[in-house]
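Q: Can I see a sequence and its folded structure?
A: Here is a first one.
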Amino acid sequence: MEKREKFRWLIVLAAASGAALAEPTLEGAPRGEAGVRYWASTGDTKRSHNAQPLDPALGNPTSVLLYENLDANTLEVFGRRNFGDWFLKGFLGIGSVNRGIFRDEDFNAGQIKFSDTTSSVTGGHIGYGAVDIGRADWVFNTERLAVVPFVGYGQWSETVDAYGATDHLGFIGGDIPHNVLVITNKVVWKALRVGVAAQLDIGPRTRLDVDLALIPYGKVRNDDSHHLRTSPSDLGPVPNIVLEGEGRGVQADVELRHEVRRHTQIGIGVRYWHLDAYEGERFLPNRPDVPRLPIVELYSRRFGITLNARRSW
């Protein structure tokens, strides 16, 4: 009888062990994690200004520059480390802008267009990063959902080159060959981040991560280098048109992650960034005789798919 009882317990233990090995669960609060992420995205940057204070015969906006369909591929490293009740997380990425379109439009009063050109964006680069700190014990927690707050700092920059020009209205005197570099645009955002990080367990080894950062305040600088207008009597050395301003926006990530083996997870997600200036000025750094003008619009946005792999410990 005693041997039969022992045998029965061995069967129970073996079954429990097999079930645990067959379906491991994600760890609730590892000490840390690190990984790599690939981001395939498309984006655009638009800026315009109002020159009516100089000449009432001009439109408002006077000049509208749009860099659109800026397809990019980036690779980043990311991580998180828990320190008792506190945690530190961040990411750092670099990549290339592969292609896009640049459009430059100018208007007289009544928004009558007098100039319209398009150019091809043939390349560029993108870089970004952020560092956030939060309190793990300031948490909204249920059996499957945990939400924690954080604050941090982030930076995002993009540089693109546009070649050639198609002169749609004849204002610049004809088309410019497609092998001629006409403009380089560089935009840099520096931003305060305030947000929440949420984790929702949707299966024994599967979790949905949401990282939502609001940008209550950011600073932006946009440098335009008009390479065919570098004469001292025109715009001067590049960068020869600069916009500076302050803005706000949002940076959001949603990722579905799955544990393929203990401490190792892969994931797929979507990412959306949008930063928009609410005030700012345009000026010519080589022409102090030209007054500063108010900007009408200046924004950058980017959206795409992410793939990642990470290890926790």
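Q: Show me another, different protein.
A: A second, unrelated one:
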Amino acid sequence: MAQQTETDHPTTPCPQCETALHVDLSSLQQSNGWARCGRCHFLFDVVARLGIPTLPPSETDAGAVPPPRTGMPEEWAPTPAFSGDDPPLDAPASLALADSDRIPLVSSSVTNRPWSFPAMKGLLNTMIGGLLLAAVVQLAYIERDAIALRWPGVVNRLMTLCQPLGCTVAPEKNLRMIRIISSSVVQLPGDVLQLDVVLENEASKPLAIPEVWLVLTDASGGVFAEQGFGADDWVKPQPALAAGTQTALRFEWPIDADDSIRMREYRTELRYPASQ
């Protein structure tokens, strides 16, 4: 009887869990080519999987006709052939094959995992891509204000994307880039003050709309009344001051008759509400 060497235990992966399994060829002789993975207990035909048409008889069974390999032998089905992380398939020494009778195992890349097929891989890749895209969109929705501040160039695009979703993008507040080009106050009948003012956004991006404050002073220069007008007071409210544009605004402010008499001068100021 020949002495067993390292070549007596070739390696084949389990088609179910891909565990590397060391197989004793004499055990394949005994089991008619069938083996069970010791990790996932998957039963598979090693000979058919590796493309070996048949197994020769052992030395003790010389001259015997091997049974046809039409299916799994009943005596082999309940018995696991592999065990552990690196499971061998052991057999009695009497069943060992001589070196001249051994059949080399051929490596095979065939697997029965559903996700290994091209169509399934494509479907999985599409699903993963869709989930990643959804995650990016959700992150952009939640952090849209921070994104607008960090990358001002995308503000207009974010505003466009937000319109169908009913969300808003808070533009940057920067009074240094907004100036009052002109202003005038006219006293209308009924003690109503009419303020006309033109604002210019000198920035290259949309800016948050500030409040326009009309401040009244008396003969001594002291402030005795003031009124602020926000974006909600515009005739046509806008979400922001467009980049590089001028905007003409008109507001009306009813005042007391005494304040109308007391007023000597006025000034206009731009402010952002403290809550913003």
